[in-house]
Predict the structure.
Amino acid sequence: MGLGMLWGNFYYVYMARKLAFKEQRGDIFIGLLICADTLAIISRRHYPAFLLGLMPVVADWAHSTIVASVSAGYSNFTVANVRFSPNVTSMISTFSYQGLVNFSGGSLLLCIVMTAILIYAIDRKFIRAAVWSVIAAVLSLFGVIHASSVGLLIKPTDDGWRFTVAYSMMTVIFGIFHLAQRKNWIKAAAEESNDLSRSV
């Protein structure tokens, strides 16, 4: 039901964003408005999941800004037919932002997956968190999230299989937590309130 509401509202968000392109500052306003409305209706215990779920989009913005800035700087401030000295190129090669690239890959879908896993983990609904972890593992293996290219990422140099292993480990951990919950070693799942006007 929650995902149905989310997909249903994407049209309105898309249209609002399209209108906001007439004024670049409109994107920031619309984003802040959506975040403020979301924080007003969700439970307080879900604030960390919501805020951490925004991070892939921030990483995507940072990644695209870095690439655009470096490209613009290279094209505008270098002299034609002049090569970089070896020490400069070695300094550039040692700067790695692979984590930023992985975190920004498939950022919109990754936001949904991360938020779902975190919300179900906070609510102690471990089976649902495990299901979302399996989905994330499959998406990572094929490069839909955590990657800059789509394909079967099983080569030693690929990062997709590493994220698949990590999400698979999360699935096992959530399964163990569920078994512990059935033995009353962990509290029961949090109950949801139907009243969205007050936070729990």
